[in-house]
Amino acid sequence: MKLRRKCGKPSGFTLLELLVVMVIIGLLAGYVGPKYFAQIGKSETKTAKAQIEALARALDTYRLDVGRYPSTEQGLAALNRQPDGEPKWHGPYLAKNVPVDPWGRAYLYRYPGEHGDYDVWTLGSDGVAGGQGADSDVGSW
């Protein structure tokens, strides 16, 4: 039995067809990529806000027990370790260690605060005061 070959064009894609597909994929990536990466920055900011709210609840509980907020020198570490000379401390006030911000840096704490009784904040993704978008500061105020 002999195999027959079909006559006509060979199968496959032309260079023009491949270029058209590559242009379409490039356009889609150019449109979707920036929107996707913008969402990543927003999720880190939302995480920072949630962590600051949890720290604020722990600080309020500390104040109920001790009668005042931890000093700036004691810092947020006072939520997990009893400071010297604090007999009314009934912590730890956090289930785990004090978290770092989503960018891997320690949260900043000041008592008394400039914006409220105390201030807890992070400097955003750039680590510098101010900024916009993912670089903006996130604070308890």
Automatic annotation (TrEMBL):
Gene3D superfamilies: Glycoprotein, Type 4 Pilin
Cellular compartment(s): Cell inner membrane
Transmembrane segments: 12-33
Membrane topology of the entry: Single-pass membrane protein
InterPro entries assigned: Bac_GSPG_pilin (IPR000983), N_methyl_site (IPR012902), Pilin-like (IPR045584), T2SS_protein-GspG_C (IPR013545), Type2_sec_GspG (IPR010054)
Keyword Transmembrane helix (UniProt): yes
Family the UniProt entry places it in: Belongs to the GSP G family.
NCBIfam families (UniProt xref): IV_pilin_GFxxxE, typeII_sec_gspG
Name of the protein in question: Type II secretion system core protein G
Gene, per the UniProt record: gspG
